[in-house]
Amino acid sequence: MKNIAIIGGGSWGSALANLLVDNNKNVIIYDNDKATIDEINQFHTNKSKLNEAKLNKEIVASNDLTKVLNHSKIIVLAVPTSVTRIVLEDIRQVLTEEKIFCNVAKGLELKTNKRVSEIVYDVIDKDLISGFVSLSGPSHAEEVVVRKLTSIVAASENINHAKLIQEIFSNTDYFRVYTSTDLIGAELGGSLKNIYAIASGMLDGLGYGINAKSALITRGLIEMKRIAIKLGAQEETLNGLVGVGDLIVTCMSRFSRNYSAGLLIGEGDDLKTSLSKMTMVVEGVKTCKTAYFLARELKIQTPIIDAVYNVLFREIEPKIEIAKLMARDLKSEQ
User: Fold this and answer.
1) Active site residue 34
2) Edge-to-edge strand list for the sheet holding 3-7
3) CA 99, CA 66: separation in Å to the nearest integer?
4) Backbone phi, then psi, for 239, in 5-degree steps?
5) What does the alpha-carbon distance between residue 81 and residue 98 come to, in Å, rounded to a whole number?
6) CATH 1.10.1040.10 occupies which residues in the chain?
7) pLDDT at residue 279 tops 80
8) CATH number of the structural domain 192-326
9) Among the options 25, 193, 225, 286, which is catalytic?
C-alpha cells in the first residue's frame, strides 16, 4: 500500500506523515486551515504544533477533501475526538469507495460515551467501511517527528487489517508497531489515560513528589481496568502499551497537553484559563466528564476520576480533593 491519506494537519497527523514518507509512502494531508496547508507545502514545517521540526519535503497538504480521499484506500483520522463526528459527516458527503479507517486520536465522545470506531460506523455507510484500526500507545508527536524510538499498537477486530497497518507504519530505525485484536481495550486505554495525565500535572503544580505520582499511575490503572473490562476489554491489553505504557508516558512527559493543562491548574489557574493557554486540544477534559458519568452508569468506583471531575467542573480546590482521597476508608489493595 503506497498511498496514504491523513485527515488532520495537527501535530500527530504531521508527525505520522513524516514517518510514512520515511517508510517510502506517498502522503497527502487534508486540513481546512489554509495557513497550515501553505506552511507544510512551502516551508515543510508546522511550527505552531511541532516547534522547529522539519517535515519531509515530499509531504503534500491540501484542503480538497475529495482529492485526499481518492488518494488512498486507507484513511488515517488524526483529528480531535470532539470533532470526529463533524469531520466524518464531511467525509460521508464525498466518499464513494470502500476504505479502511485508521484512527490515531484518543478520546470518548461526550454525551454518547462512544469510542471512535463506534462513531465511524454511526456516520459512514457500512458498505464504504472495509475495516477499522486503532493506532495507539505511548507516543508523543514531538518525539516521533525527530525520529526517537517509539513502540505502539495497531488494534482491530480483523487481525489482517491490524497487520496491514503494522507493516505500513513500522520501520527498523525508530518506529515499531505491535498488533492486537482487542479494539475495545486499545480505544479505552488510549482515552482514559488522559484523565490521569491531568491529575499528574496537578500534583506537580502543587509540589508533590514522585511517590504521589507513582501512586496515581498505579491506582489510575486500576480504575482504567475497572471501566475497560466492564465494557468488554481484556485485562492483558491494559497491562500493555495501550494501557500502562501510554499511562506512564502521558503522566510523565512535558509534551503531554493533558499534563500541561493539569500543571497550570495545580499552579492556580482555573480550567478556562489553563485551556486558553494551550495551543492544542486537551482531550482529557471532555473524556473526564464522559468517564465520570459512564462510571456511574456502570456502577464502578473511580475515586480519582471523581476527584479530577470535581476540580475541573465544580471548581473545587485540588488540595481539597487530594485530602478527600487520603481520608477514604482503609482497605486491602487486592
Assistant:
1) no
2) 60-62, 26-30, 3-7, 74-77, 99-103, 129-136, 150-155, 175-180
3) 13
4) -85, -5
5) 22
6) 192-326
7) no
8) 1.10.1040.10
9) 193
- By the 10 Å C-beta count (0-12 exposed, 13-18 middle, 19+ buried), 232 is classed as exposed
Q: Where in the chain is the domain with CATH 3.40.50.720?
A: 3-181
Residue with grid cell 525508530, as numbered in its chain = 174
pLDDT over threshold 90, residue 234: yes
For residues 25 and 224, give the distance between their C-alpha atoms in angstroms, rounded to a whole number.
36
pLDDT of 187 above 90: yes
Specify the CATH class of 3-181 in words: alpha beta
Which phi and psi (to 5°) does residue 182 adopt?
-90, 80
DSSP H or E segment with residue 135: strand 129-136
- Strand 150-155 to strand 129-136: parallel, antiparallel, or no bridges (unpaired)? antiparallel
Q: Which residue, 286, 285, 278, 288, is CA-closest to 257?
A: 278
What span, in angstroms and rounded, lies between the C-alpha atoms of 240 and 179?
Answer: 11
Of 278 and 143, more confident: 143
pTM (two decimals) = 0.94
**Rounded to an integer, what distance in angstroms lies between the CA atom of residue 213 and that of residue 104?**
27
Residue type, 13: G
Residue 5 corresponds to which cell in the numbers above? 491519506
